[in-house]
From TrEMBL, chains A, B:
NCBIfam families according to UniProt: PRK00346.1-4, PRK00346.2-2, surE
Assigned EC number: 3.1.3.5
Main location: cytoplasm
Compartment annotation: Cytoplasm
CC cofactor: a divalent metal cation; Mg(2+)
Official protein name in the record: 5'-nucleotidase SurE
Domain Survival protein SurE-like phosphatase/nucleotidase per the UniProt entry, residue ranges: 7-193
Source organism of this protein record: Winogradskyella aurantia
Keywords attached to this entry: Cytoplasm, Hydrolase, Metal-binding, Nucleotide-binding
Length: 257, 257
């Protein structure tokens, strides 16, 4: 690539999040950076888009080293606005994160971070979502930097298969305790919900959603195994959701008279 | 099945939507019905869940033939609350819809209707999302009934493969013009966004997201082909998003020093 790559940076924790700031700092080593991120936290938004209300976009200055836009919408909205309204050429890559908290296994489905990466992938742009296994706003992202840089460089150099983006999760360990990077499949896991039922001062009942994460997958080729064993996990993720392997069997049903 | 099946019914257009009422009327022929649906429209919510605010659940009477609960959350929240707080046994099936508008091809990613079905699937419950290719609130759902019944009966009788739910789309045609039901793969398609930029009375700019749907897929085994040619499309959808076919190639990259 003769020109420096154009890098679109976004996230779902909001434009002021320390994880985003870390991601921006790494991307300056690799190319020209434009930031388009939600003006407020959008965690667990899944792949929401804003179609029934208006979107606002504001040019803001946070650290002054790159153009930055604060958007009233979801992470997927940010990518759509960036590509269609803000950037004058297609970005060479879109990176999302670094998320404060895991997006491994089934969390990919609920993740705003990965929704932004998927939206970029749908637009044909190579994309990566990065997450650190630490939900704290003041989490230490220092040890993430070298992994983020290596993986982004490899994607810039090799590209990604059509219809595929990467879901990268980084353990909350010291740098020297991390054993390396593993390419994985998504573990079969889910959340065992526990609703915390309360009564408000007016006597009306309400719920908080809480839950326990349950990994039912004993495979050693999964993201959960990698993370539990001190590796950074890289899962290639696709947005063709077709369960191709089941079509033949469903075709034996009596669906037509 | 000796007992009548327990059927959980939900949607994303809200508990008063005519599409939901049609779905309920068909389900009464097949089993015992419980409705848990959003109290307001939740279209394009993707797989959002409510973790940063409270959830309210209200027992309501709309047509009086079945227990119904109106929920302040997203379609995925409705399924979680139904399974964990409302129902005293696991439902035998969860049906979502009938959505007012298409959820074919890439729309599956943005769809609240399919998010509810996927959430049920994650909980291990066979699930189907139904959509009619008509966005009107007063769309005619009459011709959907027999297809909804046949497909639901087949799922009750055969079950679904582990980790798979069905995405069913129904053309907006007269019953006799529909040629039958086809099991399909998700077409490769996307939205070409067009943001409508306006200025509000206070002089501030804002955007409406609009766009054109572009089908780039010439395959005759896709949902788009089936719908364009007068068939009901049935796509088996999975929530293991791993692009398994790309793992071998990514394993050749230099991800470790």
């Amino acid at each position: 690539m003769a020109k420096r790559p154009l890098i679109l940076v976004t996230n779902d924790d909001g434009i002021t999040a320390p994880g985003l700031r870390t991601l921006i700092s790494v991307m300056h080593k690799l190319g020209d950076v434009v930031v388009v991120a939600p003006d407020s936290p959008q965690s667990a938004m899944g792949h929401a888009i804003t179609i029934n209300s208006t979107l606002h976009l504001e040019k803001v200055t946070i650290d002054g080293k790159q153009p930055e836009y604060s958007c009233s919408g979801t992470p997927a909205d940010c990518v759509k606005l960036a590509v269609n309204e803000i950037l004058d050429r297609r970005p060479d890559i879109c990176v999302s994160g670094i998320n404060h908290g895991s997006n491994s296994s089934i969390n990919v489905i609920y993740s705003g971070t990965m929704s932004a990466a998927l939206e970029a992938g749908i637009e044909g742009i190579p994309a990566i979502g990065f997450s650190l296994l630490d939900y704290n706003w003041n989490a230490n992202f220092e040890h993430c930097k070298s992994f983020v840089e290596i993986i982004t460089r490899e994607v810039l150099s090799h590209g990604l298969a059509d219809g595929v983006v990467l879901n990268v999760n980084i353990p909350n360990l010291e740098k020297k305790a991390i054993k390396g990077v593993k390419v994985c499949r998504q573990a079969r896991a889910n959340w065992k919900e526990e609703f915390d039922k309360r009564t408000n001062p007016m006597g009306r009942e309400y719920y908080w959603l809480t839950g326990k994460f349950v990994n039912m997958d004993n495979g050693e080729d999964t993201d959960e195994w990698a993370l539990a064993n001190g590796y950074v996990s890289v899962v290639p993720v696709q947005f063709d959701l077709t369960a191709h392997h089941t079509i033949r069997s469903i075709n034996t049903w009596k669906l037509n008279d």
